[in-house]
Design a protein that fits this description.
Length: 133
C-alpha cells in the first residue's frame, strides 16, 4: 500500500530530524575567543572538577582568574611543557593553552594520569555564533 509506505518514511524522516535536533541541543551555545571570535568550546562542555565547574584561582604572582572547566575544546592549543608546580588541581600537571587562531592565552590544559580537561579564563570567552565554521 503506497499510503502505508509513505507514512512509514515520514516517520523515519521525523526520527532523523529529532536526533539531529538533539545533537544540536547538546552543542548549542558556542563560546568564542573574545579577541578573534574563533570558536573555542561550547557552554555544554562545562564539567565539574574538584567539586565545581568554576574556580577562583590565584597564581604565585597574586593574579586572580575565574577559571571554568571544559572537557572539550576546539581552537585551544597547549604551548608550554606540563608541570605540576603550583598546580590548582592536585594530581594534575598544567600547560598554558593559547587560542589556536590569534595566540592569546585562553587558560590552561590540566592532565592527570587518567583525566584531562581545560580550565579557561571566563573573561577571555564570549558567547556568540562563530563567523565561519
Ligand atoms: Zn583568538
Amino acid at each position: 500500500m503506497p499510503y502505508a509506505l509513505e507514512k512509514d518514511s515520514t516517520r523515519v524522516f521525523e526520527k532523523l530530524l529529532l536526533s539531529e535536533k538533539q545533537a544540536q541541543t547538546r552543542r548549542r551555545s558556542p563560546l568564542l575567543c573574545r579577541t578573534c571570535a574563533t570558536l573555542v568550546t561550547y557552554a555544554e562542555s562545562e564539567i565539574e572538577v574538584a567539586g565545581s565547574t568554576r574556580h577562583e584561582c590565584v597564581n604565585p604572582a597574586g593574579t586572580s582568574f575565574k577559571v571554568v572547566c571544559y572537557d572539550m575544546v576546539i581552537a585551544c592549543t597547549p604551548v608550554s611543557l606540563p608541570t605540576e608546580e603550583h598546580t590548582w588541581f592536585a594530581g594534575y600537571a598544567w600547560q598554558i593553552a593559547d587560542c589556536g587562531s590569534c595566540g592569546i592565552q585562553l587558560g590552561w590544559r590540566f592532565r592527570s594520569h587518567s583525566h584531562e580537561f581545560y580550565g579557561l579564563i571566563e573573561d577571555q570567552l564570549i558567547a556568540g555564533e562563530p563567523e565561519t565554521f
